[in-house]
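Dear colleagues,

For the upcoming journal club I promised to circulate an example of a predicted protein-ligand complex. I picked one with nicotinamide-adenine-dinucleotide because it came up in last month's discussion. The inputs are reproduced below in full, followed by the predicted structure.
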Amino acid sequence: MRVVVTGSSSGIGKAVAEMFLGKGHEVIGLDINKSSIKDANYTHYVVDIKNKEALPEINNVEILFNNAGLQNSIDDIDNNLKGTINVTEKYINNNDALKSILFNASASSISGSEFPLYAASKAGVVGYMKNVAIRLAPKKVTVNAISLGGVNTSLNDSVMNDKEKFAKIMDVTPMKKWMDLDEVCDWVYFMTCKNKSASGQNILIDNGEHDLNDRFVW
Ligand SMILES: NC(=O)c1ccc[n+]([C@@H]2O[C@H](COP(=O)([O-])OP(=O)(O)OC[C@H]3O[C@@H](n4cnc5c(N)ncnc54)[C@H](O)[C@@H]3O)[C@@H](O)[C@H]2O)c1
């Protein structure tokens, strides 16, 4: 399959790109930073997804993983929401090969917690995901979002390296852990390659942070 992954130079995007490559798929990565993957089946474009005109022509995209994102920048809405819309509109049009799109939203799309612009950008991604799911349902394309709680990536260095802050986060995380990249890859593979019937869904995967909290006061 031909898989496009945005934000493939680090963290989740890099791990997902490598997972698909490991399973024998062709992967095309888009990132504002240069490639950190070396594989004969990997093509990399250095591009800012905010710049619609700069997005490369890629035919017959079969799987699109919309992952590129920033956290707590002044650009969160333009980057995480509008950039993601740019990419999606570019590769869904005139494309009969498409099978699945997965958006990497965030638990904050549901809880509203974290940074204001970030939470708004990710809730916007979920609203847009549903719009695309409706439009592509007649073509049997699955379109969903995963909303992750904490993942052990460098995006979270500021809190992971601060013992006190991290302990506070674990206090409100019922399962007392964050996810590793391997598990994120499994979710991405399942949602894009195995799933044929769930569409328009935003799956919350957050170690119980949102729903299993015991801070019930009455
Ligand atoms: N790590 C977490 O705990 C967590 C939790 C929930 C959601 N997410 C989401 O997962 C996604 C990936 O996060 P990560 O932890 O791997 O972070 P990361 O910073 O390691 O990776 C993000 C990648 O996106 C790229 N990128 C950002 N803006 C771009 C743009 N305009 N154009 C092209 N490339 C761009 C960056 O260069 C980087 O390579 C983000 O959308 C983030 O919001 C992460």
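Two points we might discuss: The chain has a mean pLDDT of 95. The CA atoms of residues 108 and 119 lie 5 Å apart.

See you all on Thursday,
B. R.
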